[in-house]
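Good morning C.,

I know you're traveling, so I'll keep this short. The sequence:
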Amino acid sequence: MAAIGSIRKHGVLLLVIIGLALLAFILGDLSNVTRVFSNKYTMARIDGKKMDQTYSKQYEENTALMKLLQGKNSLEDNDTYQIHEMTWQQMLQDAVLDKQLEKLGMAYNNQMIEDFKENMLASLSTQQPNQFIAQFANALAQQVGPENAMSIISNIENYANNEQAKDIYNAYQALVRFAVSAEKSQQYFALAQNSVYFSNPLAKQLAKDNRSALVSLMTVNPELTAFQNLKPEVSEKEMKDFYNTHKSDLFTVQNQNRDINVAVFPINPTPADLKAIEDSVRKDFTTFAQSADIMAYNVAKGNGAVVDSTYFKESDINLPELDSLIFKSPVGSFIEPFSYENVKWYFGKVFGAANRPDSVLVATIELPFKTASYKEAPYSKKEARLLADSLRQAIVSGQTSIFAEQPNYLYGREQGDTTFWLPERGTMADLYNNLLTTPNGGIYVYKATNGYIVFQVLDRTQLIEKRQFVLYDYDITASDATVSALRSQANQFAESVTSNEELVANAAKQGIQVVNGQAVTSMAANIGQLPNCRDIVSWSFGDDVKKDAISDVFNIDRMYFAVASVAKVRETGEQKYKEVKDDIKAMLERQNKVAMVAEQLNKDLASGGMQGVAQKYSVAITDSVTLNFAGDYYMNRGVDSKAVGQIFGLQANKPTAVSGNNMAYVVNVVETRDGQATDNLMLEKNYLQNAVLGRERNENTLLSYLINQTKVLDNRVRFYQK
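The tokens, ready to paste straight into the viewer:
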């Protein structure tokens, strides 16, 4: 009974334990229970909502859109970093806007989004199409032609489950999100703009306060050699007071980041490597020049007997000077070995020449046949061949025309898609050569991988001189011995340092370049100016990697070896005093030095005036400068607000030095003028509107504020190591 009573007493606890045990049993591993409750296994969370699948889906869609807009099949590391940041920022912005619009009773439901999509598509037929869908249509037209692009866009939802059109549909989905997000932003900020009222007394006060001053001005840099002996001191109390005053605005980290130093060991060929490469190239060229023909040389080199038979016009050749070399040399001439920008060696031979049209105008009928990858095709291979022969004979005999037959074999295409100019570049040489031997009006049937194509040649461009040539290239790279020696040097260096300070100091002693990355975020692709650093960044955000950690040696794209150190770790949230003490000290020392410089300048003014100061420190005096009390940094000739506040309290015609945040200013106030209000106060109210809710700077400020109030978990670095 006591046992039963104990069970009843702890019944709720036991139910939880039993529930967890059952869950672990069902999942097959007790460690999976931890996954349910731990953020370690969550990639992203916004306001308590797990966003892993949403992020992955939107990242894939944004990648497809970026590829389409840039006309690329693959992206560089820096491109993928931009897509990650774009995806994350859009998710945060949408979360914030959805939350704010819902409070206002303006939440976007699925039907509203569908209606928006329909209107966006319909706008393509107007004189002012939606900018997002227009950009999408233009990019798609570059790949498939204008008519095909419009056909695809008009039937875009039919491609949702089409694996072959997956990238196009994903790009469209990304486009819709961007367009809807822009619409939400416009709606919200329009309401924000119209919800603020600026009273007449406030506008009048602005006009009164916005005095102007006509001054002569000198800007003095505190880092001039003349001030190098000024040593500012900062007390512990000053630093703590500054921290307590500014910790919520200056020392709160929204996105975790790292300061990373990277010692770089470039993998460059040595002089011995360069000589060995050149000797090898010239030896191969001698063998090539003595070979019976190109195919014999290819076979001897293990390249097979294939020779590119494509004809090139002069503008097709991109290597500088190679174009004129090929076209000014007689057929059969050898292209002597030459080095191009210390990247490659080349040699080759001109082996053919002809006057040929650069493109052929053709009308086509496609007859697809069933294959393992295209089981929905309308014909078997035999049926397609017989039909192609039948069409050829009927067209040649005059019983019908290719244009009369084309509408019967479109299979979803448009009539206009069946007639086009076929360029030599990019077309298989065998197909193009057969079209050239077919007279205008003649028929040629080509067997492709998935079907037969009936071509009728309609026209061709004018003849142009073209050449055939072969070109062999050799990379100019470091030898295995050089790479091994550099790797050994990097390993020895990594083993010799135990902290960030040692890495920087030892690298300086040994003449090793160190690249400094400030505030590197977890999804960054670069560190400072150093590209392709995802491996280093991912390492620096590892669970066990702390300040002063030293990495193993990284081989970055076979371009350089790298040893990294973590100089500073900034986790999300309010930083502790000890973490930012050095930053505060440097900041206050800078400010105190500026104040010391201003004090010194005032002593100099007392004895030599502005001209004496200008001559002593080689600083120019600028006359007739107008400063405005309410003006911004740029309109006030780069004089910061701290200095402006002091300047408007100075006596006229009494040159004085004042201190700004980073510079000291010597100022002579010629005159000051009180601000005058405009008749209807519209100018003042517009100024206030822009200052509070300006469409550029202040919308971003407000959006950043709202995002910063959002509870966010960003663990993307765990899921995107590369």
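Safe travels,
E.
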